[in-house]
Amino acid sequence: MKYIGLILLAWFSINQAGQDIYACKNAVVTIYSKAPIEDIDARSDKGTSVFNAATGELAFSVPIRSFKFDKARMQEHFNENYMESDKYPQATFKGKINEKPDVTKDGTYPVTAAGIFEVHGVKQTRTIAGKLTVNGGAISLSSEFMVACKDHKIDIPQLVFHNIAETIRVQVNATYTPYK
């Protein structure tokens, strides 16, 4: 976990000295799948992220095995059968926020981040909408978006096709502090 955080910080630190760099070590990521037989709901609070307010650069990573389910069997199937967590241990996003919100002024700003989203070893160019909130100097980012299993070569066996939705709702909430 610390290793991924260090990689994210190193990615931003090259030639970035003195700029507005913010870090988050405990971003909350939830996934939800609505299906006829059983809904799937999982949560992780192990996401790490770095945001450079001066350039808009954004990097995010969450360990796949950090997602917790209500049912142990569901968590086991998620990691072993679908996500292949040992082979693909992280989901990542590296990109740039298109807008230039003023992080010195309190407010909520709609933003879009364009970049490379990688899940299950498959990289996909995505533009993801969200909101950036500044409150008393604290910066938070939140987003909700859909991920199609087929876009990331996540196979759903025919036997359990009705148990798992073809698209998964992902919600991300990250609160940043200045990186010193």
Which structural traits does this protein have?
180 residues, mainly beta, Lipocalin, 9 strands, elongated
Q: Which architecture per CATH?
A: Beta Barrel
Number of helices: 2
Rg for CA atoms: 17 Å
The proportion of residues in beta strands is over 45%
CATH topology: Lipocalin
Number of strands: 9
Main sheet specs: 8 strands, antiparallel, barrel
Helix share, percent: 10-25%
| Uncertain spans | 9-18
State the name of the first-level CATH class.
Mainly Beta
Could you tell me the mean pLDDT?
86
Number of domains: 1
User: Structural class, from helix and strand content?
Assistant: mainly beta
First-to-last CA distance = 19 Å
3D shape: elongated
CATH H-level superfamily: Lipid/polyisoprenoid-binding, YceI-like
The order of strands across the largest sheet is 1-2-3-5-6-7-8-9
